[in-house]
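Q: For a teaching session next week I want to show students how multiple molecules come together into a single three-dimensional assembly. I've collected the sequence lines for a complex. Could you give me the predicted C-alpha cells for the whole thing so I can convert them for display?
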Amino acid sequence: QKEVEQNSGPLSVPEGAIASLNCTYSDRGSQSFFWYRQYSGKSPELIMFIYSNGDKEDGRFTAQLNKASQYVSLLIRDSQPSDSATYLCAVSWVARDDKIIFGKGTRLHILP
Amino acid sequence: DAGITQSPRHKVTETGTPVTLRCHQTENHRYMYWYRQDPGHGLRLIHYSYGVKDTDKGEVSDGYSVSRSKTEDFLLTLESATSSQTSVYFCAISNSMNTEAFFGQGTRLTVV
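A: Of course. Below is the structure for the complete assembly, covering every listed component.
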C-alpha cells in the first residue's frame, strides 16, 4: 500500500521567516513529486515539482528531495501572510498504471 | 483553473436522486480525473480516464460512474445519491499519468 504522509499542522511561522513543510512516502519506486497549495475554499494549484535528488528552487520556494530517506520537503523563504494555506504533497510511481497519491496536507499559518 | 470548467459549482440534492457533474477542458489533455475532498481524508481518486471511452476506477469508486464520450468532457454520475457523498468534487487533467495535474474550481455537493 503506497502512502504519502504529512503532518496536518497547523504550522505557525512568523512573517519573514522560513517555513519548512515535510512529506514522507512509503514506496521506493516513486518517480515524481509535487507540491500543491490550496487556499480555503479553492482548488489545489501546482507550485513545484521535482524528479531528481537534491534541491530545486523557484523564487521563494525550494523543493528538496531525498529518495534514500524517502522524504520530500518544501521550504518557503521570507514567508508572507499570503502563503497561509494548506500544502499538499503528491507522489507518483513508476508503474504504468499507477496514479498520483496525495497526502492529506499541512495547514500553514503565517503570523503577521 | 484556466482551461478546466466544472459545472455546477454548487448543488443540493435529495437522497436517492441521480446527480451528474460535468468537467470540460480546453487543453486537449489525455487524462482526466475525478477526486473528492473531505476533511481528514484529503484528496481521494474516484475514477479517471485515459482517453475517449477509456476509464478506470480509483480508490473510492463505489456509488459512482463516469463517462467520456469526447476528449474535452468527463462526466461523473451518482446513480442514487447518499449523504455520505456530500463532499467537494474536483476534476483534474494531465498530459500523462505520472505528471502534474491541474484542477478545476470544484463542485460542492450536498445530499440531504
